[in-house]
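We both want to read C-alpha cells more fluently, so let's practise on a single case. Would you supply a protein for us yourself, any chain you care to pick? Would you write everything just below, so we can both look at the same thing?
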Amino acid sequence: MTGITDRIAVVGAGAWGTALANTIACAGRMVTLLARDGAAASAMLAARECPRLPGIPLDPRITITALTESRPDGDAILIVVPAQNLRSTVSRLAGTIPAGTPVVTCAKGIERTTRRFMTEIIAECAPQAVPAILSGPSFALDVARGLPTAVTLAAADDEVAQMLARSLGSAAFRPYHSTDVRGVEIGGAAKNVLAIAAGIVSGRKLGASAAAALTTRGFAELMRFGRAYGAQPETLTGLSGLGDLILTCNSPQSRNFSLGIALGQGAGVDAARHGGHLAEGAFTASVLVDMARTKGVEMPIAAAVASVLDGALTIDAAIEALLTRPLRSEGWQP
C-alpha cells in the first residue's frame, strides 16, 4: 500500500474528532465528520463549528453528517470515541467497513471488562479491517488552531503506517509512523493514570520537586509495564510515551491532570470524576494495575491512583504509602 488516501472518515464529532477532521481537511483531504446523532450534526452544520471548540470554523471540505443516518464513507476511518465506547462503536459499523480499510483508533485506554487494547477490539469487532492507532502529545485546541503538533501513528504493516501518516499529516500536524502498535497503546493508556497522580501533587501543592520526581518515577513504571507487554523501548521514550507523559502531567488542559488537581484540592472522588470532562485514566487505572500484577510488575504510583479512585485509600494515606516505600537503587527493576 503506497501513496495517499484522499477520503477520510472521522467518527466522533467531539473536540478531538473535530480538531482532527479540521487539520486533515486543511491538508487538502476530503473529510466526512460523523456526529453521534442528527441533532448534533444539525447544530454543527448550522454553526459550522464544534460547540467544544468555539470560534474555530470548520474547513469547507468537511462534510458533516450523523452516524445514525450515514455510514463512514472513506478510504480510511478514524474512530474518535472514548476507550470504553470503542467496542460498541466499531461493532455498530463493522458491517459497513470494506475489507482492507484502515480503521484508526484515537482513544487512549484499555477496555476494563476484557483487558483488551484498542486495536485488539477493532480486530475482534471488524476482522476485515486493518487496525491502527494514533496517539501522542496533543491537545484538541492546539491541533484545531493549527499549532505545531507531532504524534505517532502505528500499524502492524509499515506500508500502511506510512500511508496513513502521509494522508493525515501536514506542515503543522506531523504523525511519525511506527509498527510498534502495542507500545503506542501502552504509552497512551498508562500516561493517563500517571497524569492523575501528577494532578494530585499539584492540587496538594507539594511543589515542583515532587512533581518532577513523580513524573520521573511514573515513567519508570510505564517502562516496566511496557517491557512486560512487549513494547519497544524506543516507542516508550518517544512521542507516544514520554512525550505524551510530559504534556499530560503538566497542563490543566489535560482532563486527567485536572481530575487529579480536583482530588488533591479535596474534592470527593465522585464529584471530581463528574466535573464535566471525561478523564480516561479514571477508567484505566484499576485494569492497568491488575494487568501489571499479572506480569509481576510493580507500579506503586498507578496502584495508589487506583486505590484512591476506588475509595480504598485517602489522598493522604496514598502519599504516605509512597513516601515510606523502601529506598532502592534508582536503576532497580522488579
Observations:
- The mean pLDDT is 94.
- The longest strand covers residues 149-155.
- DSSP finds 15 helices and eight strands in the chain.
- The two ends are 42 Å apart (CA to CA).
